[in-house]
């Protein structure tokens, strides 16, 4: 499926914190799971958001501006050209497409540790339980905290929180909605595609 930029309404003002802020570029692209909001800094992709309608887009711009200390600039080229190309390949079924530089500045502590393990240790076409992911980061018994980390993931799809499932085989929760999670797992061959 082709991913193409969707025109936006312009960025919201960002807040400065006294430090020189890195430029932030953003766009919205169409995908097999609906419009995705993408933002990147010079360090890498920093934010992905599902269901990027006008209201959600403005919320993301406000949050990014205040958290990163720079006014996001709408641009589908430059910093976002490679992430857009890789997402297009991912939605076309390329298992290695999302190996991208990431800017982890919107997460920290335990959440960052869990998300980094998820990104590095749960490949395309596989799933992991919340408890197993907790064990992998040295915190057995922290399955609920892993669930909270998944809910705070600033980079869904690229940091594949859709691959984290319940130990009994249930899908578990998902910030993008269970239908989106199901579609991503179908794309990766974990779940069978619907017949109709």
TrEMBL record:
Domain of life: Bacteria
Keywords: Cytoplasm, DNA damage, DNA repair, DNA-binding, Metal-binding, Methyltransferase, Phosphoprotein, Transferase, Zinc
Additional information: This enzyme catalyzes only one turnover and therefore is not strictly catalytic. According to one definition, an enzyme is a biocatalyst that acts repeatedly and over many reaction cycles.
Enzyme Commission (EC) number: 2.1.1.63
Cofactor: Zn(2+)
Pfam families from the UniProt entry: DNA_binding_1, Methyltransf_1N
InterPro entries for this protein: MethylDNA_cys_MeTrfase_AS, MethylDNA_cys_MeTrfase_DNA-bd, MethylDNA_cys_MeTrfase_DNAb, MethylG_MeTrfase_N, MGMT, MGMT_N_sf, WH-like_DNA-bd_sf
Keyword check for Zinc: yes
Active site: 161
Gene3D superfamilies: Methylated DNA-protein cysteine methyltransferase domain, Winged helix-like DNA-binding domain superfamily/Winged helix DNA-binding domain
Domain Methylated-DNA-[protein]-cysteine S-methyltransferase DNA binding: 110-190
UniProt-annotated location(s): Cytoplasm
Record-linked NCBIfam families: ogt (TIGR00589)
Chief location: cytoplasm
Protein's UniProt keywords contain Signal: no
PANTHER family in alphabetical order: METHYLATED-DNA--PROTEIN-CYSTEINE METHYLTRANSFERASE
Biological process annotations from GO: methylation
GO molecular function: methylated-DNA-[protein]-cysteine S-methyltransferase activity
Enzyme category, top tier: transferase
Domain Methylguanine DNA methyltransferase ribonuclease-like as annotated: residue spans: 26-103
Annotated protein name in UniProt: Methylated-DNA--protein-cysteine methyltransferase
Function: Involved in the cellular defense against the biological effects of O6-methylguanine (O6-MeG) and O4-methylthymine (O4-MeT) in DNA. Repairs the methylated nucleobase in DNA by stoichiometrically transferring the methyl group to a cysteine residue in the enzyme. This is a suicide reaction: the enzyme is irreversibly inactivated.
Family: Belongs to the MGMT family.
Reactions catalysed: a 4-O-methyl-thymidine in DNA + L-cysteinyl-[protein] = a thymidine in DNA + S-methyl-L-cysteinyl-[protein]; a 6-O-methyl-2'-deoxyguanosine in DNA + L-cysteinyl-[protein] = S-methyl-L-cysteinyl-[protein] + a 2'-deoxyguanosine in DNA
């Amino acid at each position: 499926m082709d991913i193409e930029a969707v025109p936006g309404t312009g960025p919201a003002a960002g807040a400065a914190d006294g430090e020189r802020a890195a430029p932030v570029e953003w766009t919205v692209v169409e995908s097999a799971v609906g419009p995705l909001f993408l933002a990147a800094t010079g360090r890498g992709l920093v934010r992905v958001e599902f269901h990027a309608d006008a209201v959600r887009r403005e919320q993301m711009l406000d949050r990014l501006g205040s958290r990163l200390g720079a006014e996001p600039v709408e641009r589908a080229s430059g910093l976002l050209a490679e992430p857009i190309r890789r997402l297009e390949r991912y939605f076309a079924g390329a298992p290695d497409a999302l190996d991208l530089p990431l800017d982890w500045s919107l997460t920290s502590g335990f959440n960052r540790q869990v998300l980094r393990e998820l990104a590095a240790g749960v490949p395309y076409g596989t799933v992991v339980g919340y408890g197993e992911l907790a064990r992998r980061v040295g915190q057995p018994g922290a399955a609920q905290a892993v669930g909270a980390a998944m809910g705070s993931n600033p980079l869904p799809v690229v940091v594949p929180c859709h691959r984290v499932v319940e130990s009994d085989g249930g899908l578990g929760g998902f910030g993008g909605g269970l239908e989106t999670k199901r579609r991503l797992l179908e794309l990766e061959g974990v779940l069978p595609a619907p017949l109709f």
